[in-house]
User: What shape does this take?
Amino acid sequence: QVQLVESGGGLVQTGGSLRLSCTVSGSIFRINAMGWYRQTPGKQRELVAQFTSAGSPNYADSVKGRFTISRDSAKTVYLQMNNLKPEDTAVYYCKIVAIVDWFAASKDYWGQGTQVTVSS
Assistant: This one.
């Protein structure tokens, strides 16, 4: 069974930094995309940053120059968040698009989310 476990959220002041981590466990044939989304109450979940099979990461315009996505293995991804702003306050979710077996269809898998709160 595929599981995603996030860590690293918390409370920080404006201008501060946090680093989120996401580790994927379970048997996976191939990961096609891996990244971070965020959601605030009453709003749709939005893409923050992700790696896709195209190679280079892509970012939401609102975080370019402040957030950096990286990975140190096929199953661990990080989100370094610098110069945080109150509008970055949200629950952050790790997501992968993966195939668990060569004959299986591609599917989205989500973590449980981690709260990031930026105080003004």
About this structure: The mean pLDDT is 95. The chain is about 0% helix and 60% strand.
